[in-house]
Amino acid sequence: MHARAVAATTTALLGAIALLLPVHDARAGSTARPSVIAHRGASAYAPENTLSAVDEAAALGILWVENDVQRTKDGELVVIHDDSLRRTTDAEEVFPDRAPWKVKDFTAAEIARLDAGSWFGAAYAGARVPTLTAYVDRVEHNHQKLLLEIKNPELYPGIEQQTLKLLGNEGWLDQRHLVGRLIVQSFSAGSLRTVHDLKPGVRTGLLGKPAAADLPDYAGFADLINPSVASLSRDYVSAVHALTGPHGKPMEVFAWTVDDAPTALTVAGYGVDGVITNRPDVVRRTLYWY
Ligand code: G3P
Ligand code: CA
Fold first, then answer.
1. What three-state secondary structure class fits 144?
2. Domain that holds residue 49
3. What counts of helices (H) and strands (E) characterise the chain?
4. Mind listing the pLDDT tens digit for each residue in 57-110?
């Protein structure tokens, strides 16, 4: 059989399996399938955490984007994953004597000079590390939804309050955004508890996989538990779903990072509510067949 025929047959089989998925919808008891979330934007196709990655997700028809928020030396919130500028910008060339190029040691003006696209591909030369303000404005402009990660909060005292203030200023804390377009997540339970205490209407997700027996400890302030796919099981998803979150609804599960069809089908079969992926088109095609 030719490779193209094999691919077509495989796609058809995956689609058939997707149609048979025992789909769980914690929100409405309907047959909704998992949300597809573009991890750091559509980061397999554009440099992660840039506006290009947001736009690439939008071009693919993907509503949800995930990002990582940190803070500059002079207090500007910016979107970047690592605590160092080294991997995803040309900081090492532009500021050769500033090792180890920590985000927190550079001003916003210095970071604005950096090229955050060339490392990924020449077509993205000149892409910038976005400020959080520019980022949420672009997500809004694209009519998308935001899974905002507070990254390394231990490095940035007060980042929760500052992030919420910015979101409020940009119009992201009205009822419409709170109910359907914003989730704040973190690996830090303390940071999430702070977000919940400061603004109880904001939905929050705890990254990682606490022991099932400890899940009730988080139900007071976390709407979601978001584990790595490697550690996930059907029983764990059920244990999360059995609990009621801070907004009176069953807690949910977004799994990360899922970039291939078989894994997407596996976690969807577990009943997850969201799939976080660098290749949102692959996951969408697998689970929704378009
Ligand atoms: O959204 C899940 C994922 O972003 C957590 O890991 O390291 O990619 O921020 P990381
Ligand atoms: Ca992240």
1. coil
2. 3-75+132-288
3. 12, 9
4. 999 999 999 999 999 999 999 999 999 999 999 999 999 999 999 999 999 999
Domain total in the chain? 1
81 catalytically annotated: yes
Nearest Cα to Cα of residue 145 among 107, 183, 175: 183
Pick from 231, 70, 223, 228: nearest CA to 152: 70
Which residue puts its alpha carbon closest to atom 7 of ligand 1? 81
| Phi, psi (deg, nearest 5) at residue 68 | -130, 125
Q: Which of 81, 177, 196, 241 is catalytic?
A: 81
Q: Is the dihedral of CA 117, 35, 69, 178 positive or negative?
A: positive
* DSSP symbol at 34: P
Of 226, 257, 259, the residue with max ligand 1 atoms within 8 A of its CB, to mutate for a pocket test, comes to 257
Residue 90, in any domain of the structure: no
CATH number of the domain bearing residue 153: 3.20.20.190
